[in-house]
Write a structure and sequence with these properties.
The protein is about 40% helix and about 10% strand. The protein contains 13 helices and eleven strands. The structure holds pyridoxal-5'-phosphate (PLP).
Length: about 375
Amino acid sequence: MQVPFLNLQPQHQALRTEVLAALAATYDATRFCLGADVENFEKTFSTTFGYARTLGMNSGTSPLHIASLCGGFGPGDEIITTPFTFASSCWGISYVGAKPVFVDIEPDTWCISPAAIARAITPKTKGIVVVHIFGQPARMDEIMTIARQHNLFVVEDCAQAVGAQYKGASVGGIGDCGTFSFYPTKNLGACGEGGAFVSRHAAVMDRAQLLRVHGSPKRYTHTAVGFNFRMDGFQGAILNIKLKHLAAWTARRRAIAARYLSGIKRPDVQLPIIPAYGESVWHQFTLLHPQRDTLRAHLEKWGVGTEIIYPGPMHLQPCYAELGYQPGRLPVAEHASARCVSLPMFPELTDAQVEHVITSLNAF
Ligand SMILES: Cc1ncc(COP(=O)(O)O)c(C=O)c1O
């Protein structure tokens, strides 16, 4: 049996007729940049997850850039973040000339460690970029307590965690702002690029809205140096359709994760956990194994696709060499990077495929 790591075909074939009809309507109405489809999506996204407002954007990286500007980050500021993430989480910090300060992660959730944040604070610390990695919510209460004590601006990178809740609250609405990616492989994927920005502060939303479109509160008046970070109309129309299915897709991801957790029986595997404060939306199902390359080769022989997400922690990436981190500095993140393997995880996996992944793993 073949179990691909990811297959976007079944979801897009199932929605094909509905999506193409919506695209035709957007096309005929020439609603190409922002417009009614994007506004509808923003409203539904807000009501679904309990945000006051949402701003649709052109990627998950753009709202991270905007977040840094809204937080007032700039040269000379230190922003504490996690090394165990996709690079983009750090770009927003670097784009504005601030310095990323990488701290270690928790050994079980693989999210940023609140204790490590507390130890890294200096008079220059201005903010924290939290990443809910693989869809797992980070320990927000502890992080917000530290942030309040030191007057720090907290960005939640929810690119992988759309719909995840921390103690019943949607991630993205707990910190000072939240950012989302709708890259096609994400839990809520556009057919192209897309992202969103949310904040519980009206003033932050106003600033983000201004920066999204050329710093322009009215046509040809520019009160700030802004960007073109607009979401396009086609993506808004597609995301409107897909958002209706997200709860069911998340439930299916959770059922698959539950089966992996109960079915995989190997003492040499470290499985992900479900913390008491809230369950992951399982963007990835990632485990740690000391011989992950041999394990991957074995799974490949059994027809099971896997990926290494992420093989190199950010503090050791060449682009941040000037920061001077050496191997061994952040041992938990380095341990996870050296051992992580992600299994197939998408809602359209069949029960038989899930069982095949488990059988293959247990036979290693
Ligand atoms: C954690 C994280 N942050 C940010 C991004 C950036 O999103 P995008 O690729 O839409 O710019 C991604 C996804 O690629 C991500 O996984």
